[in-house]
């Protein structure tokens, strides 16, 4: 668990006639990350005789993605293919499936176009209704409520035969055309529009034979019904919009089984051809190579032999072997499920190089300890845990939101850490209803007794975080030494600033500072002790630059040793020492922010209780509830971010480069993009 899974490389040769069965068997196992042999040796790859050309893979992938879009619009997430789907795959008729999808798309587009038209009408009428609400109607003898109304209202008549044309002309403008009645071949209308469109609408009215008239007395009552008419028309349009949306979704539901079946078949073909693009074939044989965990070696060997009826040649090379193809060994994390949220934090930073330490098991206690020190409260921790449990429950079976599920799990862990440290500090929603198991953090911040003889003031709290920071940095240095030993970087192990000499200087500096503090800043260690702790390793570091110079001199024969070279050695040595002294000092002091945020958390709770005491009754309770909500949201986020920052920049930076390649085998469950 401390290291990633050991990997092994397979080099295989099978007969061309067996390539289809071997491909299916490998896909069914889903454990190989392929190496494209042609990319390694620089030769062009010929596809096996039964594999489709690359264009077919592209067409299949595009078609599969198109179906996926249809399914997603209906809220449907297709499931990954199963071994049964692999065994029952059928040939794909690209043109036939495209035509079927085009038909579905055409039906959907008709519905969408009607939806867009209705939406435009809704926006226009809402614009008019807003103006009517603000400024009134202004009909006949009823004056406008505001002189700045943007509404223009006209009553008039026009030939009935021109009414439809006028409606079509007004379609692109916010307007409401209300029929008032007909006299033989003449229609009377009330037209409501925006003043800004008066010039354009005037042209349409002139073309339609519009004649403006006074609103007849018997129709004066219409002024009371205009707003109602607007609302009725808007509600009808909104209902029509919902019906069209339902029809569009029903169309996908109706085709769901077909779309799912075709998607699965396409996905199986896509994965099949992805594997075969990594094959290199001759007239009779097929060659392929790839990586897999050592634990899967025996089963894959048996699978390939069974699929090829033992007509195969398999060669296995350990990751450390010189016979492997390609330099980069993929990395498979080897952590239990319980560590998934913390593995997410590690992989967000990067993937460890193969053979180096996977920090995930150590990130868990370090991250939670930092979070708990900054956000120690039993009650608020319970709230965090409940929120995390709710999120994890809702996202449990959603593979598309696995990241959010892991984040919810992380919130649960952070809540548990808050509960633990809340018990140690005796805090429950900012109060102290019971005796703390360690010391009273809030009491110290408020200027009261801590209940612990060893920790009496904020400086003692700062000291705790300094000791914690020294431990984390030292662990990072130890991991760096282990990584360098495992990768054979012996000179870096000794002379790197994160190597043995850098660690020696750091340990010496810690001892010197501790000695000065224990002597109340009145005494220093002896000169001999200071030299042995800091001076000697600093002098030894000078060897680093000349070593690199003479090591690479053979590659640059024209390069001559001179005074300039000596000055470069000296300058590089000084810069290295400055980086070590300033870097380790700032790294260590950076952990004081843990204590600082913990104090800020306590101060915020004290402030809300002080404000609540100035009120009484319901107001006091509301203030405390809102205060706790603010602290949980704001301080919880700050604590999570700062704990992550300290892990990334003060811990990971000592040993973790994040330049590895994640192991991504081709399987039926491979993520699709």
Helix share bin = 55-70%
Radius of gyration: 37 Å
Number of helices: 23
First-last Cα distance: 30 Å
| Content of β-strand | 5-15%
Overall pLDDT, averaged? 86
Task: Report the sheet with the most strands, covering strand number, pairing sense and barrel closure.
Answer: 5 strands, antiparallel
Globally, the shape reads: extended
Low-confidence stretches: 42-54, 134-148, 216-224
User: Which structural class best describes the helix and strand composition?
Assistant: alpha+beta
The total strand number stands at 11
Write out key terms for the chains shown.
extended; four-stranded antiparallel sheet; 59% helix; alpha+beta; Alpha-Beta Plaits; single chain; 673 residues
Give a written overview of the molecule.
This protein is of the alpha+beta class. Among the domains are: 1-49 and 277-334 and 660-673, Alpha-Beta Plaits, CATH 3.30.70; 360-654, no CATH class. The chain is 59% helix and 9% strand. Strands 1, 2, 7, 8 and 9 form a five-stranded antiparallel β-sheet that branches. The chain has a four-stranded antiparallel β-sheet with strand order 4-5-3-6, sandwiched between helices. Helix 12 runs antiparallel to helix 23. The two termini are 30 Å apart. The model is unreliable at 42-54, 134-148 and 216-224 (pLDDT under 50).
């Amino acid at each position: 668990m401390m290291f990633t899974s050991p990997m092994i490389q397979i080099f295989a040769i099978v007969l061309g006639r067996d390539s289809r069965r071997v491909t299916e068997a490998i896909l069914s196992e889903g454990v190989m990350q392929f190496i494209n042999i042609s990319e390694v040796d620089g030769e062009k790859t010929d596809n096996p005789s039964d594999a489709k050309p690359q264009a077919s893979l592209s067409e299949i992938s595009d078609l599969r993605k198109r179906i996926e879009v249809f399914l997603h619009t209906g809220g449907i997430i297709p499931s990954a293919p199963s071994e049964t789907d692999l065994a029952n795959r059928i040939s794909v008729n690209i043109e036939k499936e495209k035509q079927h999808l085009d038909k579905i798309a055409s039906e959907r587009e008709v519905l969408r176009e009607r939806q867009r038209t209705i939406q435009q009408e809704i926006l226009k009428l809402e614009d008019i209704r807003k103006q009517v609400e603000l400024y009134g109607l202004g009909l006949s003898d009823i004056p406008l409520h505001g002189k700045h109304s943007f509404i223009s209202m006209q009553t008039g008549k026009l030939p009935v035969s021109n009414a439809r044309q006028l409606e079509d002309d007004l379609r692109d403008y916010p307007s409401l055309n209300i029929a008032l009645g007909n006299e033989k071949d003449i229609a009377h209308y009330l037209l409501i529009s925006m003043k800004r469109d008066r010039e354009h609408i005037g042209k349409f009215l002139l073309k339609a034979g519009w004649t403006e008239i006074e609103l007849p007395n018997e129709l004066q009552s219409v002024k009371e019904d205009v707003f109602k008419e607007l609302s009725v028309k808007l509600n009808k349009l909104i209902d029509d919009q919902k019906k069209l949306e339902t029809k569009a979704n029903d169309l996908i539901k109706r085709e769901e089984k077909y779309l799912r079946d075709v998607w699965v078949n396409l996905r199986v073909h896509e994965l099949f051809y992805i594997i075969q693009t990594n094959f290199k074939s001759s007239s009779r044989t097929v060659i392929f190579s790839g990586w897999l965990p050592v634990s899967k070696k025996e089963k894959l060997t048996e699978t390939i032999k069974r699929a090829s009826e033992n007509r195969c040649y398999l060669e296995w090379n350990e990751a450390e072997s010189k016979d492997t193809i390609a330099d980069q060994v993929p990395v498979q994390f080897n952590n239990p499920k319980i560590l998934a949220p913390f593995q997410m934090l590690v992989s967000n930073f990067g993937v460890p190089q193969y053979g180096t330490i996977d920090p995930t098991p150590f990130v868990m206690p370090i991250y939670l300890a930092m979070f708990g020190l900054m956000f120690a409260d039993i009650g608020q921790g319970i709230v965090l845990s409940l929120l995390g449990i709710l999120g994890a429950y809702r996202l449990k079976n959603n593979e598309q939101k696995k990241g959010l599920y892991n984040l919810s799990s992380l919130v649960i862990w952070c809540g548990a850490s808050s509960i633990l440290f809340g018990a140690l500090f005796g805090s429950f929603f900012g109060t102290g209803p019971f005796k703390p198991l360690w010391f009273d953090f809030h009491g110290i911040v408020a200027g009261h007794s801590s209940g612990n003889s060893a920790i009496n003031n904020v400086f003692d709290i700062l000291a705790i975080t300094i000791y914690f920071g020294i431990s984390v940095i030292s662990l990072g240095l130890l991991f760096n030494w282990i990584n360098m030993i495992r990768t054979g970087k012996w000179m870096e192990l000794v002379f790197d600033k994160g190597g043995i000499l850098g660690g020696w200087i750091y340990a010496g500096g810690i001892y010197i500072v501790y000695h000065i503090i224990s002597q109340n800043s009145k005494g220093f260690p002896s000169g001999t002790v200071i030299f042995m702790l800091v001076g000697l390793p600093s002098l030894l570091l000078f060897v680093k630059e000349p070593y690199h110079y003479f090591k690479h001199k053979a590659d640059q024969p024209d390069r001559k040793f001179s005074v300039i070279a000596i000055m470069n050695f000296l300058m590089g040595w000084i810069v290295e020492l400055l980086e070590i002294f300033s870097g380790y000092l700032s790294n260590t002091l950076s952990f004081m922010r843990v204590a600082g945020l913990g104090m800020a958390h306590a101060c915020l709770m004290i402030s809300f209780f002080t404000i609540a005491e100035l009120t009484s009754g319901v107001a006091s309770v509301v203030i405390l509830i809102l205060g706790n909500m603010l602290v949980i949201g704001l301080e919880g986020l700050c604590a999570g971010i700062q704990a992550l920052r300290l892990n990334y920049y003060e811990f990971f930076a000592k040993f973790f480069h994040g330049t590895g390649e994640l192991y991504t085998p081709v399987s039926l469950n491979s993520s699709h993009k």
